[in-house]
Amino acid sequence: MSSDFLLVDIIIFLYIITYVDLNKEQMMKVKVRDTKYAKRELYGFHIAEYYFVEGTQIETPKWVDYPSMTIRTGSGKYDFRIIDAANIVEIDYIAYTHSVSTPKFKTVDVKGSKGDIYKVTIGDKHSSCTCHAFMFRKSCKHIREAIAA
Question: Model confidence over 66-75: pLDDT tens digits?
Answer without folding.
Answer: 888 999 988 7
